[in-house]
Amino acid sequence: MTAAVSAYGAAVLTRAQDAAADATVGIGQRILQAVWRRRDEAGRTELERVVDEATDEQDDAYTTAVVSRLLKRALQDDPELREELAAMLPVPAAGTVTITASGERSIAAQHIGTAITGDGHTSQP
Predict the structure, then answer these.
(1) Does the predicted TM-score (pTM) go above 0.70?
(2) CB–CB of 1/67 below 8 Å?
């Protein structure tokens, strides 16, 4: 959802999905639109304000926290929304492992010994 907010801002709430949109942006957009559809006018205004604020923020961690709180609150209040969103998410195949790294110098691994990120590091034997 953060990718969708970053890409489209508050327009993510009403924007039709572009065929060339990235899959991550697409699922985030569909989730936010589902939350949007289930809100009354006041709720939609609040959602648009929160998304606008998150869009203006340059800190991805802040945007992630804001959008996460918004989604958590929406899911707590609406069990049908939980079911709708769960149906949107892909079901991994048995035994499938998905690992994601996001952000500057991020690393991701299922199993790892030593991982070092940063400038000028030399390995010690």
Answers:
(1) no
(2) yes
